[in-house]
Records
---
Amino acid sequence: MTARVLDGVAIANAIRLDVAVEAAALLTRGIIPGLAVVIVGDDPASQVYVASKGKACLEAGMHSETIRFAGTTTEAELLAVVDRLNADPRIHGFLVQLPLPKHISSEQVLLRIDPNKDVDGFHPMNVGRVAVGDQTAFRPATPFGIQQMLIKSGIDTRGMHAVIVGRSNIVGKPIASLLVQDTPGGNCTVTICHSRSRDLPSLTRQADLLVVAIGKPEFVTAEMVKPGAVVVDVGINRVPDPAAARGYRIVGDVAYAAVAEVASAITPVPGGVGKMTIAMLLMNTVQAARQQAAG
Ligand code: GUN
């Protein structure tokens, strides 16, 4: 079998067009949806993500601000900027790029964000609201993007056994929360695996839908995948490659070529889930602007 490739670029571009139409509709009411991104330190991958978020915002006709701090910034300075963004009427949504330097508590920072502006959906209030199935809560962009990708690709998840590899608060736990709901793109039986799971291949081989988000290059091999499974690769890993102009290439958490021979559908890296994340962040920001306009 050769898997169908789920094209994140095409689906994300279609969503970004929808977002631009919604932003234009809000503009007729004098509202320009505004997103701010706060970044601390100079992690190269984070810098790339943040630049892409800003560019995508402007392309959708939205207001964008990027606030950069040195890695030596204190927690108090960061919390002061969160307070300022919470109060800024031009900013409908904002996020603090993770990971943060070790001397700053990401829990304290996330708790300080106004849940109504928490377009990342990382504040415990939104985590809880998503878990109870509240459709007005902000869904974290990557899991939301995965679910939209499945829906728009015509993959019916009802009754599937979804096995998630990785238990992060950014992807693993929230995608479980979405896939288990009684909604389109949900109704799965969900298993979350992690580094302490016993006999991981026996678990992944049970998956009708396998979502891999552990940040280990090409970790999932063909032997770990059930024939006909749908495979979603969330990994974005740089591996050294002397033949590449930049000296590295990007690979996912799934050994793509071999797994594509076993799976029925697969997301590529790059060009898969990564593109969806930004589209859903814009979607959440428009949702925030709409909800704030409604009071
Ligand atoms: N780091 C990796 N992914 C994300 C994300 O979606 N949001 C934030 N804030 N940080 C991240």
---
Amino acid sequence: MAEQRKIIIDTDPGQDDAAAIMLAFGSHEELEVLGITTVAGNVPLSLTSRNARIICELCERTDVKVFAGADRPIARALVTAEHVHGKTGLDGPTLPEPTMPLQTQHAVDFIIETLRREPDGAVTLCTLGPLTNIALAFQKAPDIIPRIRELVMMGGGFFEGGNITPAAEFNIYVDPEAADIVVRSGVPVVMMPLDVTHQLLTRKDRVKRMADIGTAPARAMVEMLEFFERFDIEKYGSDGGPLHDPTTVAYLLKPELFKGRNCNVEIEVKSELTVGMTVVDWWHVTDRKRNATVMRHVDADGFFDLLVERFARI
Ligand code: RIB
Ligand code: CA
């Protein structure tokens, strides 16, 4: 067996976050989840920390420790997304309250301590929510940045625009200052923007394949997706909802599913009209530093084949 890739998942679950975590749990040969850190985003921190533990217990992975992080953005009031994810953030299935403990160590300190324990380039960060925890860790301990192999983020949008304002995608919009710190930090960023995730709709045939797996985690995921997708179906008449967060883990498992290019990304933090916008120099019209690999195309069928195959292994 090839050496497992060490990852930390930073998340604001969220049904699509749950799909990403479950994809990682179904890929234990390739991925070692060093820990899950939670952040305020889709719902407040107390709920994202509850939801992360519910997902661990659903997948019988209470060996993975969950650490609570920032309860609000660095410099702004928290904006949440109950309108998409429901009041608990994990609406859909009826799942028991978690009994596994929430770690007492703060998520930012867990990230710093874990990275300091590893050699350079050893750990991959998968970020599924606002980047508050990551930015705070970089501010507190900039020495950890070389320890990071890649930071694979779900966030941003360019040709596809925004989903919380016309210009901004939710994860970046909630904490634009944090995103600005991260993209300027020098950490190798792989960005999965709405340009990719809007190609990954939870069509009925795809959800049916997940239902046919027949296990408790798969059944719960189907109920999560059936709740999560109603927002996009009702609003856009689309054939399902976009499955955002699992793109980060899928990239680690099968990077060939994605196509993009290295370019400069900057974050709008000032303009009230476009705050949170990821300004992507896709056509290289400036000489700004090419600080991110921005993905634009994905093999959607290959992505869902991977999800179904790995969900069945949980
Ligand atoms: O804009 C989509 C992103 O915002 C996803 O990560 C979703 O879970 C929410 O956090
Ligand atoms: Ca998320």
---
Amino acid sequence: MTYFDQVSEAAAFLHSRIGSLTPKIGPKIGIVLGSGLGAVADAVSNPVFIPYAEIPHFPQSTVVGHSGRIVAGHLAGTPVVVMQGRVHFYEGYSPVQVTFPMRVLGALGLQAVILTNAAGGIQQGYHIGQLIALADHINFMGFNPLNGPNEPRFGFHPNSGLRFFDMTEAYSARLRALARQAASEEGFPLEEGVYLAVPGPSFETPAEIRAFRTLGATLVGMSTVPETIVARHMGLEVLGISCVTNLASGLSATPLSHEEVFEAGRQVEHRLARLFERLVPRIAALLNFEPALETQP
Ligand code: HPA
């Protein structure tokens, strides 16, 4: 069975489980929740829970704090498919396995995804618990998930599924603008940052963080970038939101730990949920009335 067929089978399975949620009026928006950021899923009304273990070919998360299920339902009246937990390259999954769930979201017919993550803050002035919208990324993972033959059938929207494609606006400027507006209404500023992805699982050394700052990164983390690349390959619009869970290596007096990362996520997840309740209906409205130029038929 080809990778594409596996993706199609997983998507068909999900469709059968959340069929009432996926007619034409169904979810256009997917949300991936990072470490400690699960509360957004609690805000989903009339949820249908689908553990990853039940979905054909779906990789299983091995990290504590990534519970590993799909939560489909409505967020402030807007249909959404939420992935609570993700798999990482450092768990031993290959790049195509890591991005399998994103392929399935694409195959479900979604138009936009919000990718959240826990990240170390590199920029001076960031504080723990701060939310940052990604303006761009630097792929330092040492691979690209699209390595290998191109599969044009992943072009679920016009002008996508291409061998070579543009990444100048990997993170949608118009979705970022909506997010900034929603955050300001919630009473906090949403700065923009540049996320550098490392393979992990060890945290960085102070010298690496100084190097990454020189390269233009303001955040560092171990996820998201492969998902963004694959989402863009399929023609989905991407909004990236990092939660600064710790100051990056060398910037804080205490050593880094996963518990610290997880705890900081816990403190901010409710703010994130309120932000999304405000934001997601607006993204849906934008997608309905103004499809992205590149995804217009
Ligand atoms: N480095 C890498 N990944 C991370 C960090 C960090 O400091 N914090 C949360 N994820």
